[in-house]
Design goal:
The complex is a heterodimer of chains A (566) and B (281). Chain A is an alpha/beta fold and 566 residues long. Helices cover 25% and strands 20% of the residues of chain A. In chain A, the strands form seven sheets. In chain A, strands 1, 2, 10, 11, 12, 13 and 22 form a seven-stranded mixed beta sheet that branches. A four-stranded antiparallel beta sheet of chain A has the order 16-17-14-20. The radius of gyration of chain B is 25 Å and the shape is elongated. Chain B is built from twelve helices and four strands. Chain B has 281 residues and is mainly α. Classes of the chains: A alpha/beta (566), B mainly alpha (281).
């Protein structure tokens, strides 16, 4: 089987590339060239891939109910996947939740669409700029605008008679803003990607899938309209060069789960774009390393004893906590109502480089976060850092997570629960590697940089003060309890570096592997640093930027020349 | 992996598992180190649970007919129902939301783990253990019941766990949670309780009990559709009949928004932090 272009993954990188390249190929080449998009999950909307095995999942919020129902106990039924590492039989040190299914992370994101602050692109480590020079806020602004237009991003309002009520912030945001005000900070409405012109209670338990601005509604629809072949339920195992000469293209080995029994699928292609997300893309590259000889090493640094593939993984500084507000405030939070996120506090950005966002999380996850108490925080060597969780012998009764008292705390979830988190700069302390005989990717947090630790401490203290200012208390905090770093925003693993610095990264500023022309990685894996705000818009804008340069042949061989050669 | 396969294979030819085989399954699940059967745990002085003694016991576990009663009592300690003085149910607990059924779901551990709900159960939990799961469940309950009974007996001078007073049961469970040997099993049971209660696997009564509206549709025990919309006075609307736009125009629709601006924070100047579009500079 041969396709001219194969794209692996359909999230904010893959969907954008599929739409842009697909449209260009259709207009320039008609049916003479082919573009195929592979996605390991199902088609949750049910209308992009008629061969999808999965029924339409209508609710992110009830994926658990779906998944435990006997007919749904299959690896393809879930919209999310969770990856983590177990260290020496001890604690998972990094827990990543990521979207799966056509649309990738957009199946589970909250629609928050903020542009990355300008200073993000100027970050340096060891006197080297982390982002290639071609990337800056000004350079990305036109691409941000295109993505915002595609995703129908609008800014929420507190109150405005000129906008529909579904564009207004929620009670949860008002309560959070009041807490911020009481500690001298400010909350402002967020920019949100929206789909339905109504408030369908999206994200809540029982959310209508149609309420979300998934990539299936925009970029993937455009890609399909342009003739891109979309195949869900196809999981890529690894890739290899099709021949000694890079112009021979690449071979993709995958498993097709759509026709009942899994079937091996081998696809040759001229141009290959890996866009399976920070974890997925990195894992595919790691599994494929043996197929590339030293001259074409996927990780040039490894040949010099300084491997980069799988290293420098950021959790985007995610740090979530949950608490209850007190009875003093007359308003119930009703956190489950409205959009899952619609305001944030930027008051701490300039001084401390974090923002705070209140959000709705399913009660099941809040209660379950206490399960991390399985881990013992005693072994700092295993955790790779200090933890302020309770030590063996300490009084755990101060932290009840079962019994009547705990249940009665939960009884207030529906009305008084307020969940919030910080997004911050971290030092990309995570690492992706292969476990289980190379079959499964694992993510571990190797250590916490002192600067990250200090930033999180300030953020945590700030969030605690907000709860207390509202007469309540913070009571769920898995990181402080056992050292687990949980993130919904993994970045890095195959990060970009300048073309002249191949040892410093995996791909060049165009996402093309340093030693493998025609092999691209275009998604969160190539983002070289935390960006301090929700990253989906930036990942999509980077993909837009790459697509534009590739199609125009600006600074690289044009897409048309690539497709006509060989 | 090898251990798992061996146990699975042996369990297909016998209906009962020995204690040792159960422990091997637990090991395959990544629980063994936490159960105190690893050497390094012994070095650290972690007490072995009672059912491990004698360690060379290979006798099959005989399912205890009272085990379910004991486990049910345990569930009611971990997530108790609340009743009024007349015994009428005020608030459901684990039993009322079918936590026992959830605990018995085949693949409960790997599925819950894949969803990030029991994060600290080992990676091996994702391995197939179907042939052993039913027996494992039966054995697990029996082992757990025996351990609880043994602990109850030592506390009360011979009473079974179900015969102990509510306060004594709570104390026994609290000590179990503090005991590294028993804690993993109790946490798995706790997982089933809270998954049933908050995950609406078999019933949405738990969510309703903590203040959420009932699902609009719970056919086949799958929650479909969003929370039903209502007008402000509480009546639920039927989109097929009611004119939602008219209610919205009149401001009667509870559309999940709030339309109220917070008071400004005078001392906090954001003019140099965010631009007019709401992005950080």
């Amino acid at each position: 089987m041969f396709r001219d272009v194969v794209i692996v993954g359909s999230g904010f990188g893959g969907a954008v590339i599929a739409a842009r390249l697909g449209r260009h190929v259709a207009s320039r080449w008609g049916g003479a060239k082919s573009v195929l998009l592979l996605e390991r999950g199902d088609d949750p909307g049910g209308d992009l891939d008629p061969r999808s095995r999965g029924g339409a999942l209508n609710a992110q919020g009830n994926r658990f109910a779906h998944s435990l129902a006997p007919s749904y106990v299959t690896r393809w039924a879930s919209l999310t996947t969770d990856t983590e590492a177990i260290e020496r039989g001890s604690a998972p040190t990094m827990s990543v939740i990521a979207g799966r299914g056509l649309g990738g992370g957009s199946n589970v994101y909250c629609g928050v669409s903020l542009r990355a602050p300008a200073s993000i692109f100027d970050q340096q480590r060891e006197r080297r700029r982390l982002w290639p020079a071609v990337y800056s806020r000004a350079a990305l602004d036109p691409h941000y605008a295109r993505v915002e237009s595609m995703l129908r991003v609008h800014r929420m309002q507190w109150t405005d008679a000129t906008v529909p009520r579904w564009q207004l912030a929620t009670k949860r945001d008002f309560v959070f803003a009041e807490g911020c005000r009481r500690i001298g900070a400010t909350a402002v409405p967020l920019k949100i990607a929206d789909h339905a012109d109504a408030n369908e209670g999206w994200w809540t338990q029982g959310q209508r899938f149609e309420g979300r601005q998934s990539l299936a509604k925009n970029y993937l629809r455009e890609a399909r309209g342009a003739g891109v072949e979309i195949a869900s339920g196809v999981e890529v195992e690894d890739i290899a060069p099709a021949g000694a000469d890079p112009s021979a293209g690449y071979v993709v080995r995958a498993v097709d789960h759509r026709d009942g029994a899994p079937r091996e699928l081998v696809i040759e292609c001229r141009m290959l774009v890996i866009a399976a997300g920070a974890i997925g893309s990195t894992a595919i590259l790691l599994r494929s390393e043996p197929a590339f000889d030293e001259a074409r090493a996927l990780d040039p640094g490894a040949t010099e004893g300084a491997p980069r593939l799988g290293r420098h993984v950021s959790g985007n500084g995610d740090y979530g906590v949950t608490g209850l507000i007190g009875d003093e405030l007359e308003e119930d939070v009703e956190g489950h109502k409205g959009k899952p996120m619609s305001s944030f506090s930027p008051s701490f950005w300039r001084e401390h480089r974090f923002v705070l966002i209140p959000f709705y999380a399913e009660p099941i996850y809040l209660a379950m976060s206490q399960f991390s108490t399985l881990a013992s925080p005693d072994d700092e060597a295993a955790l790779g850092r200090r933890s302020t969780g309770p030590r063996r012998g300490e009084d755990r009764s101060a932290l009840p997570d079962w019994g009547l008292a705990y249940k009665q705390r939960l009884a207030r979830f529906g009305s008084r629960m307020l969940t919030m988190g910080c997004l911050a700069l971290d030092a990309s302390e995570g690492e992706i590697r292969l476990g289980d005989g190379g079959r499964r990717e694992e993510v571990r947090w190797t250590r916490t940089d002192d600067e990250t630790e200090a930033r999180w401490s300030i953020a945590l203290d700030t969030m605690r003060r907000i709860y207390e200012a509202l007469g309540g208390e913070l009571f769920l905090d898995s990181y402080r309890r056992d050292g687990t770093v949980s993130t919904a925003h993994p970045l890095g693993g195959a990060r970009m570096s300048e073309a002249e610095e191949p040892l410093a990264g995996i791909v060049d500023p165009l996402g093309e592997c340093h030693r493998n022309p025609g092999l691209f990685v275009i998604d969160g894996a190539i983002v070289p640093s935390a960006i301090g705000v929700n990253p989906s818009l930036t990942i999509a804008a980077v993909a837009e930027s790459i697509a534009e340069r590739l199609i125009a042949g600006r600074g690289t061989t044009s897409l048309d020349d690539r497709l006509s050669s060989g | 992996m090898r251990v798992c396969s061996r146990v699975s294979s042996s369990s297909t030819t016998r209906s009962k598992l020995t204690r040792r085989e159960v422990l091997e399954v637990l090991a395959a699940l990544g629980l063994a180190p936490m159960l105190g059967c690893a050497e390094e745990d012994d070095d650290r002085g972690i007490r072995r649970p009672g059912w491990l003694d004698p360690p060379d016991d290979t006798a099959p576990i005989v399912p205890d007919v009272d085990a379910d009663r004991t486990v049910r009592a345990l569930l009611d300690v971990i997530l108790p129902a609340e009743r009024d003085e007349g015994g009428a149910l005020r608030s459901p607990g684990a039993l009322e939301v079918s936590a026992l059924e959830v605990l018995a779901i085949r693949d409960f551990v790997p599925t819950a783990r894949a969803l990030g709900l029991v994060r600290d159960v080992g990676l091996a939990a994702s391995l197939p253990i179907e042939p052993a799961s039913e027996a494992f469940d039966e054995a697990l309950r029996t082992l757990l019941a025996r351990e609880l009974d043994a602990r109850a007996a030592s506390h009360t001078g011979g009473l079974l766990f179900v015969e102990a007073s509510p306060a004594e049961r709570e104390r026994i469970v609290a000590e179990g949670f503090d005991d590294p040997a028993l804690r993993p099993l109790l946490l798995l049971v706790r997982a089933a309780c809270f998954v049933a209660f908050l995950g609406a696997v078999r019933s949405d009564a738990g969510l309703v009990a903590i203040g959420f509206p009932p699902f609009e549709d719970f056919e086949d025990r799958l929650a479909c559709s969003g929370y039903p919309r209502s007008i402000r006075e509480g009546r639920r609307l039927d989109p097929a009949v009611d004119d939602l736009a008219a209610y919205q125009a009149r401001g009667d629709l509870d559309d999940y928004t709030y339309a109220r601006a917070p008071a400004p924070t005078e001392s906090d100047d954001l003019s140099m932090v965010i631009d007019e579009h709401g992005d950080l500079y």
